[in-house]
Amino acid sequence: MVISLLCVFTACSNGESDSETTVSTAAATAQSTQTTTQPQETAWEWQKDTPDNQGLNSSALPDIHATFDSFNLLSSVIVKNGYIVDEYYKDGYDETSEFILNSASKSVTSALVGIAIDQGYIESVDTPISRYLPQVSELGDGWNRITIRHLLTHTSGISTTDDVLWNEWRSSDNWLDYIFNLPIVSEPGQEFSYSTGNTHLLCAILQEATGMTADAFAREYLFDPVGMDSAAIASDPQGISDGGNGVSMNIYDMAKFGLLYLNGGIWQGEQIVPAQWVEDSTSVQYDRSTGSADYGYQWWVRTFGDQGYDAYFAQGHAGQYIFVVPEIELIVAFTSDYEGSTGIYWQLVNDIVNACLN
Fold first, then answer.
1. How far apart are CA 312 and CA 256, in angstroms?
2. What is the DSSP secondary structure assignment for residue 335, as one 8-state letter?
3. In this structure, are residues 173 and 234 in contact, taking their beta carbons and an 8 Å threshold?
4. pLDDT tens column, 61-82
5. Cβ contacts of residue 204 below 8 Å, gap of 6+?
6. pLDDT top residue among 16 and 315
7. Is the confidence at residue 221, as pLDDT, over 60?
8. Residues 6+ apart with CB under 8 A from 355
9. Is-above-0.85 flag for pTM?
10. What are the CA-CA distances from residue 201 to residues 137, 148, 166, 172 (Å)?
11. CA 29 to CA 306: how far, in whole Å?
12. In whole angstroms, what is the distance from residue 226 CA to residue 108 CA?
């Protein structure tokens, strides 16, 4: 009753008749209806839910968080069935904090190579690198036998940059020339020897083949379409993108990259990374027979959990990780500043996988 009287009083005090008010209200309603029925684009946002709702036993999380507390893990995001079900941040960090991914960058570069092959910029993984880096043809037969595949799998035979040479290489005036002056120490395709120099050659090839830096190519064909707004790639002194060690982004975008791969390279109905490339790059391309994981195309491959679920992951120095366990639709992203054993991460992921209810 009070509401009705107030409405009448307001209409009279504005000098409007009942009929005028009715017409005005009807017009406003029609305008409002017309406005709200127009299609509106909304930005994609992470959806969140409780762990138990999505099949992750929340009773396991206190012990997992206690392990986080015990060393210099800076942030963690767990995604189950497409929902963020757990987040953890050390003081001073949150979902907007950006991190250099170090060697986890290599998995991003792998995606760019797959996109470039799909679009015809690069012929295939078995194309010799001399097709795109003509200076290689002057370096000898060993160099001429190196293919894109060899770079992707760290079987190029080029002496690694990731040992005693690291600081010297990274402080050199020309990173590409430095790599070209390294010896071939094994037949291409025969031995696994992890080297960021291989990935840097991939970025040089991307730039030569597409006419764009890997950073610019990524923005057009990966970062922008997926909404990875925090993502960027640094460059060497000659302006070649540092796709082996210099990708940066926040942990939400790290998890988003994992979700893109979990969904077979599709983002909101659009095929961003070719489905076959997702499958090939996250499958074993080189069986190392030693160590904790095998290797795909710039992704590590192994199993996790008591049930031995197949998984793949991006790994960077000091504890930057993106784990994907497809069978249980699980993604785990970590950022850290930790120089200790990587075994602590294997145990954490095993614990998280084992907490997923079947």
1. 15
2. E
3. no
4. 999 999 999 999 999 999 999 9
5. 132, 133, 176, 240
6. 315
7. yes
8. 51, 56, 57, 60, 61, 64
9. yes
10. 14, 9, 15, 16
11. 60
12. 13
